[in-house]
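Protein in question quoted in full.
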Amino acid sequence: MPVTIKDIAKAANVSRGTVDRALNDRGGVNPDVSARIKTIAAEMGYKPNTIAKALATHAKPIRLGAVINSLGNPFFDKVLEGIHAAVESLHDYGISIDIRKIRGYDPQRQLYEMRQLREIGIDGLVITPVPDTKVRDELNDMIRSGVRVTCCNLDIDDVNYQAYVGCDYFCSGQTAGEIIGATTHGEANLAIITSSHALYTHEMRVKGAESVLKEYPNIHICEYIEAGDDEDLSYHEVLRLLKQDKKIDILYFVTGGTTGGLKAIHELHQEDRLRAYTFDLIPAVIEDLKSGLIVSTIDQQPYMQGFQSVRTLFDAILSRHTPARKQIFTELNIKNRYNISS
């Protein structure tokens, strides 16, 4: 059991108030008594509860906000689960969160939700930021006004945030490229389905794969599709591609839209001819891993991304704790049909 102020007061034969004043140097205690109390506390192994102290000095309950690009993208179900779990774990500290869900990467919609949260007076913000100048300026202005910010899943340049919590996108692309090269024996006609070349983090996943695949001269990247994390757009674009280009035999899904693309493969009954490589463990991916259509997927720990983003804000607001690293990368786990859980 941790040593309490009550334990120290009993050992020193003084009141708890005297112990509190001595340990926190608030005055009103005889210097010799204060020194004796501090010695007893050290000998007993007392560790101050910095969180409780911060809560006592915080003028109002802590209110967090979140703007998450989760609508229509099942990957973010686990991110949101992690966010809710972190808030629940901090329930005793009186923390609440207002979550705003948006679809895709619309900077105007994101700005609107950010400003709405700012107006209600949040202390901290979790956000999957759109790489837009106005979003960047708004984030920096919020930070200057005292709002702490963590970026979850998507990073953004030139913002003085508390931390980025998410995937190392270039490394994840390299990992996927190595798997594709090895499992195709260096022979493939490849199509890459991404969200947008303008989205820097997802583009890094493309660049990471390209940096490895160039070592395989007989792997040809035949087409790039920008599907904007939109399942319907991905479905129609993959359908179009497979109808017009019969030599494509490998699909590399960089980000959201995977479910729609897989639907197109099934609709054309191309499961025996094609193989896919994906990210994350959404339901459609798990099903097609088991069937063998997907060779492998790379899980980036979305639950932990959401959970750690909230806990980082909590530490920043209450304890003024700054992470040792600005970029907190979650683990990359490679899954195939042999190690996927039911």
